[in-house]
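Below is how a single chain appears once it has passed through the pipeline. First comes the sequence as given, then the structure the pipeline wrote out for it. We keep one example in the README because the format questions we get most often are answered faster by looking than by reading.
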Amino acid sequence: MEQVDEAPSKLSIPEWSKADRPRERLLANGPKALSDAELVAILIRSGTPQDSALDLARLILRKAGNDLHKLAGTGVAELMRIKGVGEAKALSIVAALELGLRRRDQVVEQRPLVASSAQAFELLRPQLADLPHEEFWLLLLDRGNRLLDRCRVSSGGMHGTVADPKLIFREALEKRASGVILCHNHPSGQLRPSMEDIQLTKKLVEGGRFLDIAVQDHLIIAATGYFSFADNGQL
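Resulting structure:
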């Protein structure tokens, strides 16, 4: 049976090829690509004169029966009985595993579903309805129409604000949004879209098609209510 070469355990980690170093592998491939031992090695940061951080991490895991649940129940004093594990290394391991336990027990709040203009209006009414000046906001959505983020892209005067398509799509791309809902307010209370509003909406709809980002609606918000381009067949 052909033997597969492993990273040389007696070399210090900085001497390994970059592809074998845990930190570089984490940066390149993300945490899910790393073994338990590699993740522990990143936590403890260094080994001993005899063993690399990865060798020491494997030893720590073996002492816990290669069981992360058992390792999570191991205290600082017990970890420090392992040769090469000092107080700082033991504290790092205990703190990291405790954070993992707290994350598991924490209830994840589900992001709001935005399936109608009324729901979009309710999400932005507090920010826009009573402003004395115009602002332009985005609701950024995932493929399931759940809210990823809401953000302001510009702020102006009584009669207008600049909505730069480059800024709008940069926000969408950075958040990996599949869809956006455009929103701006009219301090005058007039809900009818201006010619500039109509032209901007068309430009953004066309730009979104090139980037595979759906412009799902454009809301004009005022203290008295809102106007939806989608509801009125103007997208």
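The longest helix spans residues 87-105.

See the next section for the split statistics.
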